[in-house]
Write a structure and sequence with these properties.
mainly alpha, 4 helices, 0% strand, elongated, UDP-glycosyltransferase 74E2
Length: 94
């Protein structure tokens, strides 16, 4: 159950966009009870939702690894960022 600032956005992405988690629902008092946590854990560990979560997590893991590998999008972007810093005459290397 998201509580502060960006937690609601993060929870939305984890559950609805990336599909790598299950949302825990608060009760009428705004508390996430033990039974709800158990439900979520059982769904992830034993249920069909868990299979979907596992498949999606593997997909995102593969995408992230490809991005940080040599020649991946993150690798290229970091190289370009460092190159731009080095070309800036105001950049000092300490």
């Amino acid at each position: 159950m998201p509580q502060w600032t960006d937690q609601s956005t993060n929870a939305k992405f984890v559950t609805d966009v990336w599909g790598i988690g299950i949302r825990a629902h608060a009760d009428e008092e705004g508390l996430v009870r033990q039974e709800e946590i158990v439900r979520c854990l059982r769904n992830v560990m034993e249920g069909e939702e868990g299979k979907v979560v596992s498949t999606n997590a593997a997909k995102w893991r593969s995408i992230a690894r490809a991005a940080v590998d040599e020649g991946g999008s993150s690798d290229i972007n970091i190289e370009e960022f460092v190159r731009a810093l080095m070309m800036n005459p105001r950049t000092r290397i300490v």
